[in-house]
C-alpha cells in the first residue's frame, strides 16, 4: 500500500507524517535555512493495547478463549443449578445465606472477568471491516454478557448480599434463622414482617434485587450457551 503523507508548515519548518506500517508512524522533518536544508527522520513506534488482525489466531489464543468460556459456563451451571439446591436442603437459613454472601461476589467477579477476556480475544481476531453477520452477532453477545455480568457483580449481587446480612441480624434477635431450608417456617417470617416495618422493607428490597440479579445471571447463561453453540458450529473436527 502506498504511504500516506500529510505536510504541516510552521515557521519555516516542513513536517511530514508517513504511515509506513499499521503499527509505526514515521515523522520526517525538513528544515530550510538560507537555501540549504537539513534532513532528519524520526521513527515513532505506536503500540496499541488491542489491535485487530485478520490473521489466523494462534493456538494459545484459541486455548485461552476456550478456557475462559468453559470456566464461566461451568461456574454458572454449578452455582445456579446444583450447589444452591443442595445447600438449601441441608443447611439452615443463616448458614446458607452466609455461604452465598461469600461465594456469589467471587463467582460474579470471576465471571465478568472471563466474559471480558472472551470479548477481547474474539474482537482481536475479527476486524470490524471483515465481520459477517454471525461474527457481528457473536461480538454483540459477548458485549451483552460483559455488560450484564459487570452490572450484576458491582450492584445487584452486592446489594443482595448486604440486604440479606441486615435481615439475618434482625432474625437472630428474634430467635429465627436456624430452620433448614428457605421455604420452611414461613409463618414466623410473615409475622416478623407484619411486626417490624424495617424488616418488611428489607424483605421487599431483597426480593427485588435478588430478582434482578437472577435475571442478569440467566442472561449470561443464555449468552454463554449461544457462544458455545457458535464454537461447536465452527469446529471442523473433534
What does this structure look like?
The chain is an alpha+beta fold and 238 residues long. It has 2 domains: 7-46; 59-234. The protein is 64% helix and 15% strand. Strands 1-2-3-4 form a 4-stranded antiparallel sheet, with no helix packed on it. The radius of gyration is 28 Å and the shape is elongated. 19% of the residues are buried. The model is unreliable at 1-37 and 39-51 (pLDDT under 50).
Tell me the number of strands: 4
Strand fraction equals: 5-15%
Q: Give average pLDDT, whole number.
A: 81
Element string (H = helix, E = strand): EEEEHHHHH
Helix content: 55-70%
The shape is: elongated
Q: Any idea what the radius of gyration is? A: 28 Å
Distance between the termini: 40 Å
Number of domains: 2
Multimeric state of these chains? single chain
Unreliable sequence segments:
1-37, 39-51
Number of discrete helical segments:
5
Give, in spatial order, the strands making up the sheet with the most strands.
Answer: 1-2-3-4
Helix-strand makeup class? alpha+beta
Main sheet record: 4 strands, antiparallel
InterPro entries: TMEM205, TMEM205-like
Domain TMEM205-like: 68-168
Protein name: TMEM205-like domain-containing protein
Pfam families: DUF4149
Q: What's the arrangement of secondary structure elements?
A:
Layout: E1 5-10, E2 13-21, E3 24-33, E4 36-45, H1 59-90, H2 93-124, H3 133-173, H4 186-195, H5 197-233
Antiparallel strand pairs: 1-2, 2-3, 3-4
Amino acid at each position: 500500500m502506498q504511504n500516506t503523507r500529510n505536510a504541516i508548515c510552521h515557521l519555516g519548518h516542513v513536517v511530514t507524517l508517513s504511515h509506513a506500517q499499521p503499527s509505526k508512524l514515521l515523522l520526517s522533518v525538513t528544515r530550510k535555512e538560507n537555501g540549504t536544508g537539513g534532513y532528519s527522520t524520526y521513527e515513532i513506534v505506536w503500540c496499541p493495547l488491542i489491535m485487530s488482525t485478520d490473521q489466523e489466531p494462534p493456538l494459545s489464543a484459541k486455548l485461552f478463549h476456550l478456557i475462559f468460556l468453559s470456566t464461566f459456563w461451568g461456574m454458572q451451571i454449578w452455582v445456579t443449578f446444583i450447589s444452591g439446591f443442595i445447600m438449601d436442603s441441608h443447611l439452615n437459613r443463616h448458614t446458607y445465606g452466609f455461604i452465598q454472601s461469600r461465594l456469589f461476589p467471587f463467582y460474579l467477579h470471576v465471571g465478568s472477568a472471563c466474559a471480558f477476556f472472551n470479548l477481547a480475544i474474539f474482537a482481536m481476531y475479527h476486524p470490524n471491516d471483515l465481520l459477517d453477520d454471525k461474527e457481528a452477532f457473536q461480538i454483540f453477545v459477548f458485549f451483552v454478557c460483559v455488560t450484564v455480568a459487570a452490572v450484576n457483580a458491582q450492584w445487584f449481587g452486592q446489594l443482595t448480599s448486604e440486604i440479606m446480612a441486615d435481615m439475618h441480624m434482625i432474625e437472630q434477635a428474634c430467635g429465627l434463622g436456624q430452620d433448614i431450608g428457605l421455604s420452611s417456617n414461613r409463618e414466623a417470617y410473615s409475622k416478623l414482617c407484619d411486626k417490624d416495618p424495617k424488616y418488611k422493607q428489607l424483605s421487599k428490597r431483597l426480593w427485588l434485587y435478588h430478582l434482578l440479579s437472577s435475571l442478569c445471571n440467566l442472561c449470561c447463561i443464555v449468552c454463554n450457551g449461544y457462544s458455545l453453540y457458535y464454537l461447536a458450529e465452527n469446529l471442523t473436527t473433534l
